[in-house]
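Mods, move this if it's the wrong board.
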Amino acid sequence: MKKLTALATLAVAAALAYGEMVKLGPATPPDPVKEQERRAAKRLAKLKKTGGRIVDMSTMKGKFVFVNCQKTVQSEKLKDVVERLGRHFMSDFSIADGKSSVSVENAGVALTENGATAAVYLVDSKTIPTLLLAPESKWAMVNVAALASDGADAAKIERRVKREMMRAFAGVSGGCGAMDPLCVSRTVTSLSELDALKSGDLSAEPMYRAEDALKAMGITPFRKTTYREACEEGWAPSPTNEYQKAIWDQVHAVPKNPMKIEFDPKKGR
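Not the wrong board. Structure tokens:
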């Protein structure tokens, strides 16, 4: 009986709610001009309160460098991979042409030569596989010659190199063997399997692992904060607009009623 009463109550409530919806009619879409004005006012209020967001570069330590020691694919065509990693980890990622040839024997020395904390070397070699990982030494190698060994056209070789760059980064930073079927770090055993990968990007799993691995290697991100917080912490640069100027003056103003501490001779010095 109690169940029937409860069901009846729910049915009545649903009917009343439906009746109210019918009375109200379809929702009226917001006026686009007013909505734009509302959002602009909200952004302005936030800017006045915080001064906007700024970057503290002093927290960024270490460098992850992709060192290009081959001529098949130019560095300019590969920089988008490096930039994506840099944006995601908010750290110093770069690509540079190698100052000299790099081999397994001198890869560790080449880290210092290129000012790198960790590195991925793009090389042409007749002896190493397409991808060679040495995470304990903070480097990996991508053999571009092996990626071009089947006579693939320039566009396919470039795509392969970009995928192996991501896979090499994952290998150095502990992100190999992801379970996600769309992750580029999945195990492949041939060029055809590399081509068949559905994505050239890393999934969330290896990215999360890489964050801890990079910090352990000494590669730390820059910090984003508000201008107000930077002023309160004492490292903010000079203001660049009226809102930052107002915050600067407010934070650095001398208190109107400063606290006074009187000397008590009974307590000594």
